[in-house]
Write a structure and sequence with these properties.
The structure holds 2 protein chains of 2 kinds. Helix content of chain A is 28%, strand content 24%. By secondary structure, chain A is an alpha/beta fold. The longest helix of chain A has 17 residues. In chain A, α3 packs across α4, α4 crosses α5 and α5 runs parallel beside α6. Chain B contains 12 helices and 13 strands. By secondary structure, chain B is an alpha/beta fold. Chain B folds into 2 domains: 238 residues, P-loop containing nucleotide triphosphate hydrolases (Rossmann fold), CATH 3.40.50.300; 71 residues, no CATH class. Chain B has an 8-stranded mixed sheet, with helices on both faces. In chain B, a hairpin with a 2-residue loop joins β1 and β2. The chains are: A alpha/beta, B alpha/beta.
């Protein structure tokens, strides 16, 4: 099966200007949150976007939905360059793309009943397939594992996991093709996390969804994704099928990231070498390869030249000088 | 209480009076931490793990009441000490590292100022010596250029560096026990790995004991020697870390371990625990895990089971595991 590319991102950049004393706009400091990213998400697959805090993964996710306007670059959704679209055509496209946020406590309006939260989108776009609002809402609630009589209750009456189910039901309301899930389980307890991850997998099949799953937690990314992209300081350093990347990581950063995750098996405990230092500031990223100040395998060229993206095996790309010949 | 044991908590009960009724946060909790040991208490939010930690230092909010129980530290019952005696122990014999290093430092004082305060409460040192001591502490927790860094303010430190500075403060009076409540939750994984390494070195080089409070089974497996699993205010299982992960006996421990996505294993589906944690104001009077347990039978409705030994080093509060059914 050769699936088509649902989302394709080319050389996407988003810079944020931040304070600074100078009035001259050319002298303002700039945070290079997303700095030249290429990504492809195949229809019906899940791309896991993983990286440490401040690497730009959330900004990238929001740019893809045009919730944030990118600086430059192209974003194709279903072969249509959405950056060129005017407001009206963009709005029409929005029902095909949705987002689930990290914190289910602040992403649901405390003054709205669950039924109103979920059916709000119908006021703009109507009920998909024409049908009755009420039926659609109770059917959505059932598909995410909540009782249909939850419609008349308020968000505060639900636990964190149940609230995240409500947020997912809201995202599903208009039968979208694509959902950006930004750390959807980070705020939840361990036992509830498993419920939500399993639910997301089931819904992916029944609603034929494509996910961009953004997380700092490598274990959940490995569980839910088909492909994974590793981000560091605004750049994607490695992309590939989950199995390849986690079993044989190529980029030294991916290696250190995987080695840093505590494994729940004390027999595997060993004194591994933790990577030294901390991520540098995205205001003045290091020259050459951005990871070189922390890299255990750096050479002279790393600080001078920015590495190109190289395909090391089919579908597995790495951005590192170790693989340039 | 054996001679190796540093602190032993016995039948601790902590309740809170709230406007909605009595909240039974910690019930009948007993465990023992040995010298030079890393002891883990693992549980989900609301399981009572943090309240247990806070009651050791007696820094619970005023709405709480320690119903009964004993906390024997070096043979003295902390719960019967006067406030003054307790102050001499806090920060000197037992110190604490909190979850959020961001809010644990005062933004308007330098790091050296704040660590210095912790030192001078317990020891009279001349300024010069105190400064030397602070530099030495910061160096021992791996802060580069401590002579310069100590005069910086908290906002000039990154999250990981702040957590190191917190550890330096906790170590400032060479305590015997450090209580660390979710010390790495707000940190990135690569920084978390550095902090774990730091804790390991502290145990090895200084012989301190660490009581680690966390929700992360991975962290327990990396650092701890012994573990207690808490659920809804009760300890449901206590074991050495190897037995706990190799052969968990309580159904909750098993489900908890099976529900984590793993980097070292491939899983198609995660085991999920149905339902949710009981309302803390309304904890069942039978086994607290019974409503969510796949193995429950009629005997599980006969009161909360005691924590009993089922094999060398393993205690479990489950009727069926105690009978050898599980």
């Amino acid at each position: 099966m050769t699936a088509t590319n649902l989302v394709e991102v080319k050389q996407l950049k988003k810079h944020f200007a931040i304070g600074g004393r100078s009035m001259n706009p050319f002298k303002k400091d700039v945070v290079r949150a997303v700095d030249g990213v290429d990504l492809v998400i195949k229809e019906g697959s899940t791309l896991g976007l993983v990286g440490e805090s401040g690497c730009g993964k959330t900004t990238l996710g929001r740019c893809i939905l045009r919730l944030i306007e990118p600086e430059s670059g192209e974003i194709f959704f279903d072969s249509c360059d959405i950056i060129q679209l005017d407001k009206k055509s963009m709005r029409r496209l929005r029902k095909n793309m949705q987002i689930v946020f990290q914190d289910p406590f602040s992403s649901l309006d405390p003054r709205m009943k669950v039924g109103a939260i979920i059916s709000q989108a119908f006021n703009v776009f109507g009920v998909p397939g024409g049908g009755n609002k009420k039926d659609r809402v109770s059917w959505l609630l059932e598909s995410v594992g909540l009782e249909a009589d939850s419609v008349n209750r308020f968000p505060h009456e639900f636990s964190g996991g149940q609230r995240q189910r409500i947020a997912i039901a809201r995202a599903l309301a208009l039968n979208p093709q694509f959902i950006v899930a930004d750390e959807p389980v980070s705020a939840l307890d361990v036992s509830v996390r498993a419920q939500i991850l399993n639910l997301m997998n089931e819904l992916k099949n029944s609603f034929r969804l494509t996910y961009l799953y953004i997380s700092h937690d490598l274990s959940t990314v490995k569980f839910i994704s088909d492909r994974v992209a590793v981000m560091y300081l605004g750049k994607v350093l490695e992309t590939g099928p989950v199995k390849m990347v986690f079993e044989k990581p190529k980029h030294p950063y991916t290696e250190t990231l995987i080695a840093a995750v505590p494994i729940p098996n004390p027999a595997l405990r060993f004194n591994r070498k933790a990577v030294k230092g901390e991520p540098p500031s995205p205001i003045s990223p290091p020259s050459g390869c951005r990871f070189h100040p922390r890299c255990p395998r750096k050479t002279d060229v790393c600080s001078e030249l920015e590495p190109r993206v190289i395909e090391v095996e089919p579908g597995h790309q790495v951005c590192c000088h170790l693989f340039t010949t | 209480m054996t001679s190796k044991s540093l602190i032993s908590v016995e039948r601790l009960q902590v309740h809170f009076s709230t406007t909605r009724g009595l909240l039974r946060a910690v019930n009948n909790v007993s465990f023992e931490v040995n010298r030079g040991e890393a002891y883990g208490i693992v549980g989900e939010s609301g399981s009572g793990k943090s309240v247990t930690a806070l009651s050791i230092l007696r820094i619970l909010p005023p709405t709480s009441r320690i119903g009964f129980g004993e906390i024997l530290f070096n043979g003295r019952n902390l719960l019967s000490l006067s406030d003054k005696e307790m102050r001499a122990i806090r920060g000197r014999e037992i110190s604490m590292i909190f979850q959020d290093p961001q809010s644990s430092f005062d933004p308007i004082f330098t790091i050296s100022n704040q660590i210095g305060e912790a030192v001078s409460i317990h020891r009279k040192l001349v300024t010069k010596e105190r400064d030397k001591h602070i530099t030495m502490l910061l160096r021992s927790v791996g802060i580069p250029e401590p002579e310069i860094r100590k005069n910086h303010y908290p906002h000039q430190f990154s999250g990981g560096m702040k957590q190191r500075a917190m550890s330096a403060m906790a170590l400032s009076n060479s305590p015997e026990l450090i209580i660390a409540d979710e010390p790495t939750t707000s940190l990135d994984v690569t920084i978390q790995a550095q902090i774990i390494e730091l804790f390991r070195n502290l145990i090895k080089e200084l012989g301190v004991s660490i009581l680690l409070i966390t929700h992360d089974m991975g962290l327990i497996a990396e650092l701890c020697d012994s573990v207690s699993v808490m659920y809804a205010g009760y300890i449901v299982e206590t074991a050495d870390v190897y037995s706990l992960f190799r052969n968990p006996r309580h159904p909750y421990t098993r489900a908890l371990i099976d529900s984590i996505p793993r980097l070292d294993l491939d899983k198609d589906k995660l085991v999920s625990i149905p339902g949710r944690v009981p309302d803390p104001l309304n904890i069942p009077h039978f086994c607290v895990f019974q409503p969510r347990c796949n193995f429950s039978t009629d005997i599980c409705l006969g009161g909360m089971p005691e924590l009993l030994q089922v094999r060398e080093g393993t205690k479990v509060a489950c009727y069926r595991a105690q009978r050898g059914d599980l």
